[in-house]
Design brief:
Layout: E1 2-11, E2 17-27, E3 51-61, E4 66-77, E5 85-86, E6 89-90, E7 102-109
Antiparallel strand pairs: 1-2, 2-3, 3-4, 4-7, 5-6
Length: 111
């Protein structure tokens, strides 16, 4: 197993704005990759797919109690063309990068 994350936060001069960049990765099974996942007899499947995420964000500090965050995650999964059946799911669903990017808009209030 391998995983981790790295953050970079930068205040924009003396303003209320801040930029965020985050990179993370998670590989639950570093012994296999790509088309090895789901190969017949390998006892591997969808739970062994590696994921990486690149997040980009902007933070605005409205005042000392309110913060607004706009954040976009670009999620990438490992690709496997193996056709082993995993319950009702097959690894064919991992034959390309899934469209699972996420945009979030958050308001945080401190009280």
């Amino acid at each position: 197993m391998s995983g981790g994350y790295v953050y970079f936060l930068q205040n924009i001069f003396q303003s209320r704005h801040q930029l965020v960049v985050k990179y993370d990765w998670y590989d639950p099974n570093t012994d296999v990759s790509g088309n090895e996942i789901g190969r017949a007899g390998s006892l591997t499947g969808a739970a062994d797919v590696k994921f990486t995420t690149l997040g980009l964000g902007w933070i605005y500090r409205w005042n000392s109690q309110v913060k607004i965050t706009a954040y976009y995650d670009v999620v990438t999964n490992e690709i496997s063309n193996a056709s082993a059946a995993i319950g009702k799911n097959t690894l064919n669903t991992w034959a390309e990068d899934r469209k699972d990017n996420v945009f979030t808009l958050r308001v945080q209030y401190k009280f």
